[in-house]
Design a protein that fits this description.
The chain has 132 residues and is of the alpha+beta class. It has six helices and six strands, in the order βααβαβββααβα.
């Protein structure tokens, strides 16, 4: 299993929306690096669901329910994402930045990327910070 981080504006589509809908198509990604990460996802991988914008915190764990499929005729892709569980305690961007073991986390190095990988070690640190 691999781990990922998916960013979304809570005012557009937040964790509560994902839970209410039972899942969604993670589409509309138009950055080559982020799209490459979507192509690398496999069924049952897990992803931190991160609220960008004013919240700036990881708030839940999502499951990749379907691997990448075409999103349009230009080579972009989408995956199916379903809610797994909320984090017991949100993990804020400030907390992530202040945590030495997360200093190399892709999301912190490429902050504008909407989809990024999370290493096994980083996942364990974030789970600890979340009280998981």
């Amino acid at each position: 299993m691999a781990y990922w981080l998916l960013k979304s504006e809570p005012d557009s589509y937040g964790w509560d929306d994902l839970v209410k809908d039972g899942g969604t198509e993670w589409d509309g990604v138009r950055n080559h690096t982020a799209a490459r990460h979507l192509r690398a996802m496999a069924v049952d991988d897990r992803a931190l669901f991160y609220h960008s914008g004013k919240d700036k915190a990881a708030v839940g764990i999502a499951r990749i329910a379907r691997a990448a499929q075409p999103d349009d005729d230009e080579g972009w892709v989408s995956v199916r994402v379903e809610p797994d569980q909320p984090l017991p305690r949100p993990v804020t961007l400030a907390t992530m930045k202040a945590t030495e073991d997360l200093k190399d986390m892709a999301m912190l190095r490429q902050s504008r990327l909407s989809v990024s990988p999370v290493t096994d070690a980083e996942w364990e640190v974030v789970m600890g910070l979340a009280g998981q």
